[in-house]
Every structure is written in structure tokens, then in C-alpha cells.
Known about the structure:
single chain; 8 strands; globular
Amino acid sequence: MVTEQVRLARQLGGKPDSRAWVADQLDWKKQVAVKVLATDLPPDDLEALVDLVEKVGAVAELESPHLVQTFDHAFTDDGVAYRVMELLQGESLAERLKKGKMPLRDAGEVSTQVAAALRVAHKAGMVHGRIEPENIFLCKSSEGIKVKLLNLGIGAIRKPPRTWPYISPEQYLDRTVDRRTDLWSLGEVAYEMIVGRHPIDAEKRRKLKWEHEPPSELWISDLPDKADAWFKRALDPKPEKRFDSAEKMAAEFAAMLTGKKPAASSKAAARPVVHKVVAVGTPAPEPEPTEDDDSVSIDVDE
Length: 302
């Protein structure tokens, strides 16, 4: 029993190390999902744990059909932080990509819906910090693709390891991050959905080389002419040269796929909210960037 009304039933995915569970909400007579939060935090770091639960609470107040609904979040009697959420049916984008790259229309739907979730989060001053296929869930729906963004409020409290494939230049260099960091990672996810591989590999990151191969050079059928320009902007090493909002990024992506001009937004983009990511826990050791003659210095705004 997590609470008097929530009883764990089985671990999600059947994995013994999973932190997510299917649970019975006894008073509602329905099943929910329960996630144990931050088991890798130091046991004496109460401040970080409380901060994590507060962030989850702030996320629960956001309204978007593309964010997971949170019903409850608190601590158990023995001090374990947990979150009770809606139980989703479907698969993660990571599972879908194991089957191969996606049709352009589907990739556009996923990118647009993730951007819609990010627009709500960014407006509230939140940065996700971990936009990746594992955190993008494709729900079963008779109306086509329906996306839910997972783990908002959790990813931003930890500095991602340098081996994380979707890491932005500013995250890699341990600089301050803002909403454009999420947009870089979304650009990487979009590239992977369309091309079938990552735009920037570990060796390039290690040498601080952030160039990606333009999709037009990869012989992808039905690829719009403007795809190269979109990815060049989405994956620009300098945040100020990227899209300045998730809404703008999604509109340009949809326009690129349809060949139509994006609708003009009536709202000016808000000034980015800047966050300093604090490393919590003990990440795996990562190789430092090399400083040989082939290295490239990237100027990323503080």
C-alpha cells in the first residue's frame, strides 16, 4: 500500500528495476500509474528531494492534453517520494523507433504535440531538460497519434551525462540552460525520426564539432526542400540562432512538411527563463573534451 487507497499491483514493463508501477486506486476502482521518484538521490539530501516533489506539484497544476495528468504526489510514511498519475496505454517513441524511422507526417505529428506540451511548460518558466524518445509516449488512440510528454519537472534537476545522445552544446559544456535547450533536443529527436539515426555522434561531441549531415544528402524520399534549413536552425550550436519558442518551431516544421507558410503568431516570444542545472547524484564518468588541433571552440552565451 502506498496510501490507504493506492495499492501497487505490478511493475511497468515487467522490469525488476523499474521505478514505475501499475497500481489499483481503490476508491476510484480504476488503475493508475505510480512512480517512485529519485531513488538515486543521496539519502541525506532532503532538500533536493523536497525540491523534486515541489517541482512535480508545480507540473500537476499545468493543463495540457499532451502532459501526463498527476493525481497525487507526496512521501510515504518511510520517506519515499512518489507520484500517482494516469495510466497510459501504448508505447514510448523509443520503442517505436526500434522498428525504423517514421513517415514524415507521423514525425510531424509527434514533434508538433511535444512542442505544444513544451509551450505550456516554458510559459510557466519550466525547462524539461531531458527531451528524448524515452520521455515521449505514443498513446493508443482511434484518432491517430496522441502524444504525452513524460517526466516534466524531474529531468531538469539533474545534469545529463555527456554521453546522453540528445545533449545540447550548452548542457555538454555545463553552461546555463533555457527553453532553447529543450528545442535543441527536440530537433535531435525530429532528425532521428526522419533520418533513422542521431545527427551528432559521441565522437563529434567530444571534439566539440556540432555539425550534422543535411537530410537532403541522405536520399530520403519525399523530403521537403526546406528540411535542411529547418534542421540547421533547430540544431544551431548557438541558442540565440535557434527557434525562440516551441510554438514557432512547430509551426515552421508543419510548414516545411506541407509547403505552406506558417501562421503568424500574435504573441511575442517570452524572454527565456534561464536555469542553472545542478548535478544531483553521481553520474557515470565522462571523457573530457579534447583540446587537440581538430577541436572547435563553441561560443555559447552564459
